[in-house]
Amino acid sequence: MNTTSIERTPPRHAQVAPSRGAEFLTFRVGPQDYGMDILKVQEIRGYSPVTRLANMPEFVKGVIDLRGSVVPILDLRIKFKLDSVRYDEFTVVIVLNLAGRMVGVVVDGVSDVLALEAGQIMAPPEFSSAFDTRYITGVGSVGDRMLVLVDIERLVLSADMALADEALAA
What we know:
The protein is mainly β. The protein is about 10% helix and about 45% strand.
């Protein structure tokens, strides 16, 4: 199995503000490109089968043993309600270090690490209350490509992800 470790400094807990630049790991979920703060990323792994847990939401795929730690695995493609979810050679798990906890998220693929300057980061769009945009920190512009910048810590550790502290602390 291919595993890529990423050297990183301790995670920042502040949300990325459009007034300053930052580095983002870019990844794809369905047809959309996203970016997350690179400092939250522990490693990137190829997808492998997980141990299922009973009575979990569908997007909680299960857990894996990562060097002696039990890590919950969430499939963002299912959480984002994509019509079709395939597991192939491009499917990866991004292992995150969030508030001292490891959590894996399944995505369709990762692209690269981009350093975005403040001028390339626009404020998140404003929608009516019918659309939940609290996890979007901004929109990054790279040439003709637009990245939805996600506060991955806020998303994964949110109450609507239905993960109890006990499951994450394992």
